[in-house]
Amino acid sequence: MTPVGRLTVLYDADCPLCVHLRHWLLRQRQLVPLDLVPAGSQRARRLFPDLDHAAALREITVVGDRGQVYRASAAWIVCLWALAEHRPRAHWLATPAGQPFARATVLAAAKWREALKGPERRDGHPDPSCDTGRCEVPGPPG
Fold it and tell me: What is the phi/psi pair of residue 7, to 5°?
């Protein structure tokens, strides 16, 4: 099997949390180069014409240079695996002992992301009660 030489991280450019994490990833020392591309963008569609781009907007998706596709907790783990300081943590998160923590982190991020983007109607559009299409950033839990 050919090793991964590069990863493309598809992130939601309209999500403040996702953009924050994009900047954080770019500041880290990378053992495997990361390209960060807005999910659903023309560039993403051109690079990956067979990918489910609607799904990539709903959850983090990472595509390897050999066509590997990672979603949800596997995508977070592979992002950490690409980083020098976080590779040991990624190895642990990929174990049976670490997988529940990876899943919990992804679920918590999804809830936080939902709160940052504001409530949506059933048709997927922002709730009109939010003046700008976004509601306030929630405070810390508790």
Answer: -130, 140
pLDDT of residue 127: 40
Pairwise CA distance, residues 37 & 113, whole Å = 18
What token pair was written down for 83?
A: 């980083």
How confident is the model over 21-59, as pLDDT tens digits?
999 999 999 999 999 999 999 999 999 999 999 999 888
Q: How far apart are CA 19 and CA 87, in angstroms?
A: 22
Q: What is the dihedral of CA 94, 99, 102, 107, to 10 degrees?
A: 140
Please give the Cα distance from 6 to 127 (Å, whole number). 38
